[in-house]
Amino acid sequence: KRYSGNQYKSDIKKEVKKLGKEKLLKIYYDMLIIREFESMLNSIKTQGSYGGIEYNHLGPAHLSIGQEAAAVGQCIPLAIEDFIFGSHRSHGEVLAKCFSAIDELEENELLKIMKSYMDGACLKVVEKEHKGNIKSLAQDFVLYGVLAEIFGRANGFNKGLGGSMHVFFAPLGSMPNNAIVGGAADISVGAALFKRINRKPGMVICNIGDGSMGCGPVWEAIMLAAMDQYRTLWDKDIGGAPPILFNFFNNFYGMGGQTSGETMGYKILARVGAGV
Fold first, then answer.
1. How far apart are CA 93 and CA 71, in angstroms?
2. Kind and range of the H or E element at 207?
3. What is d(CA 87, CA 85) in angstroms, rounded to the nearest whole number?
4. What is the largest CA-CA distance in the chain?
5. Tens of pLDDT along 198-212?
6. What is the pTM of this model?
7. Chain mean pLDDT for the chain
8. Distance of alpha carbon 23 from alpha carbon 222, whole angstroms
9. DSSP summary character for residue 88
């Protein structure tokens, strides 16, 4: 029997009333940007060019085409204090979190971040060709910084040393991604526990795939986040369990094997969450 507890049961009219047309257009716009970004990488990787510009990318390109709604949907309600951690397939989440933060921050705050990051090296490149307001400049800044990082360039957000699977931008709440399958789970719980113990605002989202459920550290992280001690031994003013959400991107495969009915010990991934 299918688990239906978290099924989406609304409709567009209700969403327009709740969020407004402008917010829904922003959600759609962010999704389109992420889809085009990933499609561009796919074109460069498979054909050696994009839009008539040739480029030979020798590094990895683990894409998230088709997962744009999950990336943008999780980030739209987040605040600047909220963190996301990701996997080897997290370009979309990085962009979505940064876009969400850009929407929230004031222009002077965005300028301060862009000017101070790596002494403004990334900003100097982007602002040469930019025409528009500070918010759109910040979006171009993020797109350029992420792409330069994927291509291993010095102006990348991590000076090209992290590459595709380790790109992140901490000033806007996008924390380090992890090339190890499920590797972000324990780190995310640690970050959430730090927030709780130190009474810091915000929550943490751990983005990993369905294949990671075959990794022991992921189960360890889930159990650590759900321990009874937070409720029974800690003072109530601490706030209870670490503020973390495990967000599993269920694309039905882990490497070359189907996770449901083949390589894992579950049939419906959502049932795992229902039992914790």
1. 5
2. strand 204-209
3. 7
4. 62
5. 999 999 999 998 888
6. 0.91
7. 92
8. 33
9. T
Residue 72 buriedness (CB in 10 A; 0-12 / 13-18 / 19+)? buried
**CA dist., res. 26 & res. 103, Å (int):** 9
Strand ranges in 104-195 using DSSP code E only, listed in sequence order: 174-177
Q: Letter for the amino acid at 235?
A: D
CB atoms within 10 A of CB 43: 14
**Residues in contact with 183: Cβ distance below 8 Å, sequence separation at least 6, in sequence order:** 87, 217
Percent with pLDDT over 90 in the chain: 78
Q: Which tokens go with 35?
A: 């889809």
Closest CA to 64 of 77, 74, 53, 54: 74
pLDDT for position 276: 64
Tell me the DSSP string of 231-268: HHTS-GGG-SS--EEEEEE--SEETTEEIIIIISS-S-
pLDDT in tens, 48-99: 999 999 999 999 889 999 999 999 999 999 999 999 999 999 999 999 999 9
In the numeric block, the tokens 């967000």 are attached to 247
Higher-pLDDT residue of 224 and 12 is 224
Q: What pLDDT is recorded for position 251?
A: 80
What does residue 61 show for φ and ψ, rounded to 5 degrees? -150, 80
pLDDT, one tens digit per residue, over 17-28 is: 999 999 999 999
* Strand ranges, E, within 66-173: 83-86
Among candidates 82, 41, 73, 63, which has minimal Cα distance to 175?
A: 82
Strand partners, 208: 248
Pairing of strands 83-86, 204-209: parallel
